[in-house]
Amino acid sequence: MNAPVTEAETLTPPTVAEQDFTDADAAVDRLCELYSVATDFLCRHFTETLGGKRPAARIRAFYPEIRITTTSYAQVDTRLSFGHVHEPGTYSTTVTRPDLFRHYLKQQISLLLENHCVPVTIGLSQTPMPVHFAVAGEADITVPQDGALDFPLRDVFDVPDLSTTNDDIVNGFGFENPDGSGPLAPFTAQRIDYSLARLAHYTATKPEHFQNHILFTNYQFYFEEFEAYARAQLADPDSGYSSFVGPGNTEITDADAPMPIPEKQPQMPTYHLKRKGQNGITLVNIGVGPSNAKTATDHIAVLRPHAWLMVGHCAGLRNSQSLGDFVLAHAYLREDHVLDD
To answer: What is the reported pTM?
Structure first.
């Protein structure tokens, strides 16, 4: 039997120095570069491991991070709900999939630079990247089930840590990073990666297909109407819509093209009418019951959509409600505590 790998024997990508940026595009480019180095490193070593080459050391790569330090109490536009920090200090966040979140990251970093007149620092965090998330975009790499390898996977590679994959930041529980810095984003990289993986599983569509405007429903006939609407938009060259995506990542650009239905439907069948800049519409069938509603909203939240609405029939309203009220909770700490357990 091979000797167990010790924590002291750790192989990582080459160490890189932190860099300061005053240009948002350049900062995001650097995030993409660091993320690509980390994922390529893990994918390469994991592929070698699956091929029978047992690593002689622990294999580890780290998420990139954004960090900003300000010493000023200078007041910013109080109408802004993001893009600034409230008081002097150091703030940081880990980053994943900068390619998917490029527009969002550029917007956030641009506002930070504008509002605080200090550079942002891009470097590597101290948070290891789980191998499951690093290989998630590789169609030809699958993480084996426990026991399939001749050694425990977590002895060599980092795996998801569910004890730290939570909503403490967005719930306002006074979260502080291990190094003492404050949070710079509502979700950590690992929390985002976890949700991206769950979305692909529950909806049978890749996270890249999700649009900025989300509709939830629990009636199948809305999907029939949505498909008819989508085909009409594809037939109109001036609509701005470019394609229609269904479960299984089937994507059509022709209004008359067939849309195959998977033999086995996912838990939450989802369709996307795509438009440039992710400004199209996504329709999610959450089925019946609060559990699916919570699951869907908690995972889609990491994509930072512009808006989401519930479309459906109401079985009954409380005295405090009226038709047209927003019935699907947007807050992550629900006041009725129904879903706490």
So the answer is: 0.89
